[in-house]
């Protein structure tokens, strides 16, 4: 684990010597060891404007001394990012020692270093490909990329140069399934499979049938097949007979609908605007949407913080989790959203038309959820107009602040509530903060929570922050996502756990249980 | 070098009947419901690209 100064601003991390990159022509036949300077380089790449990294907003939050100004120098001077300029905040002290110096305390720095986005790449490889390594990843991990047909087929092969790593999971004593896996696989060298073949099958039915026919080994059961596969949350007998295993997991993903806080209709901080958003929230029957559109899987969200993260509290209750048509109507009446012209729809308090423009995509599950949303809003007299576009187009328009309302889902990367609360942090507007919510009280809370160590005092601030979001409702958090996963009987050790980054190296195939391929 | 060894083994199998066939290779076959973007850790943001990248490149820490 990393060492830190008492004020959590200086962090020193020692790398294990003897870890090597897989061979690549860029290394000119030399064995290439992974060193601290590789992480310095890889992390600087987030700040390089040329990479337009989606990770920058999040990484910037670490407040690494000198990194933001290095980025600014490139942007202002319209010149290439200067990777060679050493900065105080991110240095290799020697071959194996990496040091961070941060402007603010960050007691949970290691949370930010876990995800695969923070993985090390080698500068020679990046430069040999003109900075474009989307199709040429070279690393030190358990697999290498051996084939890639874009949007169709990916093949990973066992990395024969992978160092010795052994299966060493430490499941909790009350985790019977985990204990059984650990007993079976303990001490095995990783990875256990020789090859991973990944097919892209975007349609739910063919993907599900491919699994049922035994041609793929694991699956996240598509929501429209849940009733068939997991009726009442139990594995269907016809699957059980074949030895298929099912696992239901409360994930660390949440779904939400955000309101653009800069929008003249749904945005704003005055009581009438707050009332409109809260009425929309109260008018949404999330439980029914889970039952009908998500195959019964999901937990109604009470707050914006992801399940399993610090700051999440299963006992927390708030208006965000409430469905109350009478209260929604009363709020709208009180603040003057009335149907003045008798057309059946409420108008704005000044008599101007009130239409909720709701961005969505053409997928079947979105269509189902949209219909339910429209019914819910109709019941409280609010007119909805859907703006249909492909997800990627919506994402782009959303970052530019051009959507009024949009439903999306987020996986947080670390088990801490700040990863969820960043959605309401003013300086992250346009990045993780897609609603562009800007409230000084919220920013102050977020900054305090970021620098404090874990404990009851910090948890109390999480509570305040959650209540602030519920009160202003820049988003209606709808669902903590629950997923059902299944595996064929010949897959050993398959478990999807929240925050688990990679699992391909953790499973084995038992050929004695598999039909001949 | 390792790649060359693989190719050599594959050629051998074509030339002479041998026990070393695909069946002795352990293959994990999975499906993504959404297409991947690519595999540059600094340029991706989707969970599927991420799950590939984290199997090829390594971050400083991992959870159990």
In words, what does this structure look like?
The complex is a heterodimer of chains A (517) and B (64). In chain A, strands 8, 9, 10, 11, 12, 13 and 14 form a seven-stranded mixed sheet that branches. Chain A has a four-stranded antiparallel sheet with strand order 1-2-4-3, with helices on one face. In chain A, strands 5-6-7 form a three-stranded antiparallel sheet, with no helix packed on it. Chain A contains 16 helices and 16 strands. Chain A is of the alpha+beta class. Helix content of chain A is 29%, strand content 18%. Chain A folds into three domains: 3-140, Dipeptide-binding Protein, Domain 1 (Dipeptide-binding Protein, domain 1, Alpha-Beta Complex); 154-217 and 488-513, no CATH class; 251-482, Dipeptide-binding Protein, domain 3 (Roll), CATH 3.10.105.10. Chain A starts with a strand and ends in an 8-residue tail after the last strand. With 64 residues, chain B is of the alpha+beta class. Chain B has a domain at 21-64. In chain B, 36% of the residues are buried. Chains A and B meet through helix 1, strand 5, strand 6, strand 7 and helix 6 of A and helix 1, strand 1 and helix 2 of B. Strand 7 of chain A pairs parallel with strand 1 of chain B, so a sheet runs across the interface.
């Amino acid at each position: 684990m990393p060492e830190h100064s008492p004020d959590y601003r200086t962090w020193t991390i020692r790398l294990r010597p003897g870890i090597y990159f897989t061979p690549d022509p860029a290394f000119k036949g030399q064995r290439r060891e992974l060193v601290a300077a590789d992480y310095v380089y890889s992390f600087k790449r987030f700040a390089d404007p040329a990479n337009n990294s989606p990770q920058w907003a999040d990484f910037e939050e670490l407040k690494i001394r000198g990194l933001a100004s290095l980025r600014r120098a490139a942007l202002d001077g319209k010149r290439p990012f200067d990777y060679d300029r050493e900065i105080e905040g991110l240095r290799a002290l020697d071959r194996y020692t990496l040091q961070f110096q941060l402007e603010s305390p960050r007691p949970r720095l290691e949370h930010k270093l876990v995800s695969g986005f923070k993985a090390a790449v080698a500068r020679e490889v990046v430069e040999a490909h003109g900075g474009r390594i989307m199709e040429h990843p070279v690393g030190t991990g358990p697999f290498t990329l051996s084939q890639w047909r874009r949007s169709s087929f990916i093949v990973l092969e066992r990395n024969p140069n992978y160092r010795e790593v052994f299966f060493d999971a430490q499941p909790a004593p009350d985790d019977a399934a985990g204990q059984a896996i650990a007993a079976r696989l303990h001490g095995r060298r990783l990875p256990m499979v020789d090859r991973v073949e990944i097919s892209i099958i975007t349609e739910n039915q063919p993907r599900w049938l491919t699994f049922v026919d035994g041609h793929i080994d694991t699956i996240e059961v598509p929501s429209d097949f849940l009733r068939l596969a997991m009726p009442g949350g139990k594995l269907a007998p016809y699957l059980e007979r074949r030895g298929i295993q099912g696992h239901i997991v409360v994930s660390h993903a949440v779904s939400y609908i955000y309101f653009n806080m800069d929008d003249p209709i749904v945005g704003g901080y005055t009581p009438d605007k707050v009332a409109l958003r809260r009425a929309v929230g109260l008018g949404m029957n999330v439980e029914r949407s889970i039952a009908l559109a998500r195959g019964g899987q999901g937990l109604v969200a009470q707050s914006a913080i992801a399940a399993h993260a610090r700051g999440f509290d299963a006992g927390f209750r708030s208006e965000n989790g409430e469905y109350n048509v009478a209260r929604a109507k009363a709020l709208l009446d009180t603040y003057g959203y009335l149907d003045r012209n008798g057309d059946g729809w409420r108008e704005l308090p000044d008599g101007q038309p009130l239409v909720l423009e709701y961005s969505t995509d053409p997928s079947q599950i979105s269509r189902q959820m949209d219909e339910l949303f429209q019914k819910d809003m109709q019941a409280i007299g609010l007119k909805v107009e859907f703006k249909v576009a492909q997800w990627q187009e919506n994402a782009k328009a959303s970052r530019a602040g051009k959507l009024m309302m949009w439903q999306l889902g987020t996986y947080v990367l670390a088990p801490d509530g700040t990863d969820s609360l960043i959605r309401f942090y003013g300086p992250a507007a346009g990045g993780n903060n897609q609603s562009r919510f800007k409230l000084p009280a919220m920013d102050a809370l977020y900054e305090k929570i970021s620098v404090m160590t874990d404990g009851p005092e910090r948890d109390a601030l999480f509570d305040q922050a959650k209540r602030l979001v519920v009160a202003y409702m820049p988003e209606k958090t709808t669902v903590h996502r629950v997923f059902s996963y299944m595996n064929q009987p010949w897959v050993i050790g398959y478990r999807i756990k929240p925050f688990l980054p990679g699992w391909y190296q953790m499973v084995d195939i038992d050929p004695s249980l598999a039909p001949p391929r | 070098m390792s790649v060359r060894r693989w190719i050599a083994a594959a050629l051998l199998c074509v030339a002479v009947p041998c026990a070393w066939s695909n069946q002795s290779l352990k293959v994990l076959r999975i499906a993504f419901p959404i297409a991947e973007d690519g595999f540059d850790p600094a340029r991706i943001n989707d969970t599927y690209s991420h799950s590939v990248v984290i199997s090829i490149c390594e971050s400083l820490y991992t959870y159990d």
